[in-house]
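FYI - complex with flavin mononucleotide, inputs then prediction.
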Amino acid sequence: MDLFDTVYQRQSIGKVKPDPVPQHIIEQLLSAAVQAPNHHRVRPWRFIVLSGAARQRLGDVMAESKRLSAPETPDAVLDVERSRPLRSPVIIAIGVDKPSEPKVLEVENICAAAAAAENLLLAATDLGLGAMWRTGPAALDPRVKEFLGLAPDQHLIGFIYMGYPEGEHIRQDRPGFADRTTWLD
Ligand SMILES: Cc1cc2nc3c(=O)[nH]c(=O)nc-3n(C[C@H](O)[C@H](O)[C@H](O)COP(=O)(O)O)c2cc1C
């Protein structure tokens, strides 16, 4: 697919089939992700690929964390929380390294990881996958970070849910750039 076609075709697709995504396809996506620019070549991104029972374990951590922070939460609500990661056969969580040298800024590392995430979304679109970047309270949760092997002060910029699209997805037109652009000459 032409690059511009892929960019214009990308959209968040949350409804995907449970069919597994082959390992070599996931590796293709990760390889595309790491082509992103990153200041000082620190490669600040961390990818945690969750499939199968790992999604259940993530859901258990999310539900338990909700219960601990709000003990009055009804079981039905906890069950919804627990089942969230089962919405797609694969989830790629993206963490960001904290800068370890003064010349590297935290915001730059976050930007680099976000660029990697967008590469991943575009590559997924190109390969016919449906993908959706999700965050929510889980992305800020220290227990979730610990489960994923991230430190509490590491940013978890999102979970890329993905799988083969279920049903038709009509892409909505996006607002243009004119009202967000200043031209200086
Ligand atoms: C950093 C980030 C976090 C997001 N978190 C969520 C989320 O938690 N839940 C959700 O439904 N969509 C989430 N999205 C997806 C956006 O809602 C979506 O990109 C937006 O509605 C535009 O739609 P499009 O992706 O089809 O262009 C997130 C997107 C970004 C970039």
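Residues 11-12, 133-136, 158 surround flavin mononucleotide (CB under 6 Å). The chain has six helices and four strands.
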